[in-house]
Design a protein that fits this description.
Blueprint lengths: L31 E7 L3 H17 L5 E4 L4 H7 L5 H9 L2 E6 L14 H11 L4 E7 L12 H4 L3 E7 L7 E9 L2 E7 L4 H16 L4 E6 L5 H17 L4 E6 H10 L6 E4 L1 H14 L9 E6 L5 E5 L18 H13 L4 H16 L18 H14 L2
Parallel strand pairs: 1-2, 1-3, 3-12, 5-10, 8-9, 8-10
Antiparallel strand pairs: 4-5, 4-11, 6-7, 11-12
Helix pairs in contact: 1-10, 1-12, 6-7, 8-9, 10-11, 11-12
The chain binds 3-isopropylmalic acid and magnesium ion.
């Protein structure tokens, strides 16, 4: 079982996150952020988020920001991808903003100290069980998808990926000797309560959107999938009968996502299928450089959920340090922080509109150039353009 009370405390998604300033804190400093830029393009895209944060500061919406290391850079400095001190800081703040981790330089490291372990430790120890990955197609980018324009134009779906269990964390795991050969083992394991809480997150979110949930697993071959399907159905029948629920095998789900993605509203799925399906869904929208994510856990004492926000894209070592990366996914991740951690839905929308307006003006980073080419702008120019739109919106 998980911590008592977790099952009774579904995430308060959308606009209902309580803001309950702790005693003795002024309203000005009651929003704490830990920024972990990480590796590869992480620091470049995060620098643009800093500009956005600073802009909100000039509008009276300020954040208490601290910065630290995660991933390969933390390993270089401390011999571990996440120090205990950084982990403790992450537990204390209202929200963590993470850039990206990893790079070829670290491929040779032992599994236990790979950059990715830093990220997985944050997810596990903060118990961030609901990973929200929206796939929205911006109008100006409908031509960029590898699918036909009418299949993706206006697309707005939300994948909720279970993030703290399943095959990513199940035991036993490892590479063992069996007779005269090696065997690699990972374990897919889900408890009822782990399934129930992420199902509740999906139903809560669906009620604020199109009121539809599609749950994906492989109940045809996996017992954990049979349990997943049962528990999602039970939670639905008992608590969310008003939400439309369907079930799909994850392989068929992948097929349907490319055939007609607009049939979906909210998709809820396990950790590994969610990893795959969210990359697939991201690409429907034209570029992985556009997709934000929020990883949420149970509410803290101040009513805000444990939270980590990060772009879905990785560290992109091939373009790191060149000023070519698209900062939009990271900036939109901050918009999700405004909405889900700080109850600043109007400000989140303002930021999303600014991004939309910049794209509508034809401002493009290299990943958004399309086959006909053109002159891409730099990471910094894209960030500046978004801040300029924000400023113009008041
Ligand atoms: C993601 C990434 C991570 C994952 C890696 C970096 C550990 O692919 O967030 O989707 O597999 O979860
Ligand atoms: Mg992934």
């Amino acid at each position: 079982m998980n911590a008592p009370g977790l099952l009774d405390a579904p995430l308060r998604l959308g606009y209902a996150v309580a803001t309950n300033p702790a005693k003795g804190h002024s309203a000005m400093t009651d929003r704490s952020l830990l920024i972990l830029p990480g590796d590869g393009i992480g620091p470049e895209v995060m620098a643009e988020v800093r500009k956005v944060i600073d802009w909100f500061g000039t509008r009276g919406i300020s954040f208490d920001v601290s910065e630290d290391l995660v991933g390969g850079c933390a390993y270089d400095a401390h011999g571990t991808p996440l120090t205990d001190a950084t982990m403790a800081k992450a537990q204390e703040v209202d929200a963590v903003l993470l850039g990206a981790v990893g790079g070829p330089k670290y491929d040779v490291l032992d599994f236990s100290v790979k950059p990715e372990r830093g990220l997985l430790r944050l997810r596990k120890e903060m118990d961030l069980y609901a990973n929200l990955r929206p796939a929205q197609c911006f109008d100006a980018l409908a031509d960029f998808s590898s699918l036909k324009k009418d299949v993706v134009a206006g697309l707005d779906i939300m994948i909720i990926r279970e993030l703290t269990s399943g095959v990513y964390f199940g035991e036993p795991r490892g590479i063992f000797k069996e007779g005269n050969e090696r065997v690699g083992i990972n374990t897919q394991r889900y408890t009822e309560s782990e399934i129930a809480r992420v199902a509740r997150s999906a139903f809560e979110l669906a009620r604020k959107r199109g009121n539809k949930v599609c749950s994906m697993e492989k109940a045809n071959v996996m017992e954990s999938g049979v349990l997943w399907r049962d528990v999602v159905q039970e939670i639905h029948d008992a608590e969310y009968p008003d939400v439309e629920l369907s079930h799909m095998y994850a392989d068929a789900g992948a097929m349907q996502l490319t055939r007609w993605p607009k049939q979906f509203d909210v998709i809820v799925t396990d950790n590994l299928f969610g990893d795959l399906l969210s990359d697939l869904a991201a690409m429907l929208t034209g570029s992985l450089g556009m997709l934000p994510s929020a990883s949420l856990g149970a509410p803290m004492e101040n009513g805000r959920p444990k939270a980590l926000y990060e772009p879905v894209h990785g560290s992109a070592p091939d373009i790191a340090g060149q000023g070519r990366a698209n900062p939009i996914a990271c900036i939109l991740s901050f918009a999700m922080a405004l909405r889900y951690s700080f109850d600043l839905g109007a400000e989140a929308e303002r930021l999303e509109h600014a991004v939309n307006a910049v794209l509508a003006d034809g401002v493009r980073t290299a990943d958004l150039m399309g086959p006909e080419g053109g002159a891409p702008v730099s990471t910094a120019t894209m960030g500046d353009a978004i801040v300029a739109k924000l400023a113009a919106s008041v």
